[in-house]
Amino acid sequence: MKRLNILPFAVLVFSLSGLAFADYESEIRDLKLQKEKLNSEIQNLNTRIASTDSMLRADVSHRQLLEQRYKADVERRNLEIDSLNAKIRKVASSLQQERNKQARAKNKSDNVAAKRRALRGELAKICKQLEVQIAQTLPWERDKRLDRAKSLTREIESGNVTEEEAFSRMKSLVNEEIKFGDEVSVVNSPLTRKNGEIVNATILRIGNQWMVYVDENGASYGRLERKLENDKIVYEWNEELNLEERAAVKLAIDVKQAKKPPQIVKLPVSLSVVGGVR
Q1: Range of the structural domain that residue 226 is part of
Q2: In which order are the strands placed within the sheet that holds 198-206?
């Protein structure tokens, strides 16, 4: 009887135990699922951490590489800048040397130009002196000779002729005047006498000092005399020659024209002095 009473209780206990075990098993399964889930999450986290670490290491490596490249680039650029600065200094030095050369060349050119201006001034002064001398010489093609000297003076003063050409032309003019002063010439040409009468005459010129003439008929004779009137040199014919003076003039002309043998002839002339009479 007692066994029968215990049996329901045991059944109840077993039933409750089964229920408890079922709950435990369910809880265990839930815990296992949670564990697996947590393990999966942990694994995912580990994977992400490993990936993050890998990315971090890659970033560090990349940063280090970039730093190395940056340093190398900075060093290269510094070297390039130093090289460019050296080239700039070299070019600046060459430029300064060229400027110095140009300055020296300009100074030399200015000096040459100044010397040439001074030379032109001196040449013009000499030409004017030559004009004065020509104006005081015998009236033998004097206008033409004077025009050449004045023309050269104008061209020198206006700068239309170089100093070399001016010097050459002046030398030519001086040589012509020297030749004019050295030569003895005789020409047959119309001549205006002191009284204004025009006659055909043979004119003898001796250098730039003396001129005598005889007309074609041998009736009129004269010698050119130099005088100072109103501070100006003038020339006029002295036609009042005596027989001896006329014979000397006629003989000199005949000797020059080879009508008489060469000989010394005493002419009725004297040295003309600038500023005085004859």
Answers
A1: 183-278
A2: 184-192, 198-206, 210-215, 221-229, 232-238
The number of folded domains in the chain is 1
**Is 151 part of any domain?**
no
Strands (E), the chain: 184-192, 198-206, 210-215, 221-229, 232-238
Which one-letter DSSP state was computed for residue 17?
H
What is the model's pTM?
A: 0.59
CB atoms within 10 A of CB 130: 21
- DSSP-derived secondary structure letter, 230: T
User: Considering only CA atoms, which of 174, 165, 256, 173 is closest in space to residue 210?
Assistant: 256
**Of 253, 252, 222, the residue nearest 237 (C-alpha):** 222
DSSP lists the bridge partners of residue 210 as 206
Kindly state the tokens that stand for 158: 């206006």
Backbone angles phi and psi of 13, in degrees to 5: -65, -45
Q: How many whole angstroms separate alpha carbon 230 and alpha carbon 232?
A: 5
Does residue 209 lie in a domain region? yes
What is d(CA 224, CA 263) in angstroms, rounded to the nearest whole number?
23
Within a domain: residue 87?
Answer: no
> Is 246 in a helix, a strand, or coil?
helix
- Per-residue model confidence as pLDDT tens for the chain (278 residues): 444 456 566 556 556 565 666 666 777 777 788 788 878 888 888 887 877 777 878 888 888 888 888 888 898 999 989 999 999 999 999 999 999 999 999 999 999 889 989 999 999 999 999 999 898 888 888 899 999 999 999 999 998 999 899 999 999 999 999 998 889 999 999 988 888 889 999 999 988 888 999 999 888 999 988 888 888 888 889 898 899 999 999 999 999 999 999 988 888 776 554 444 33
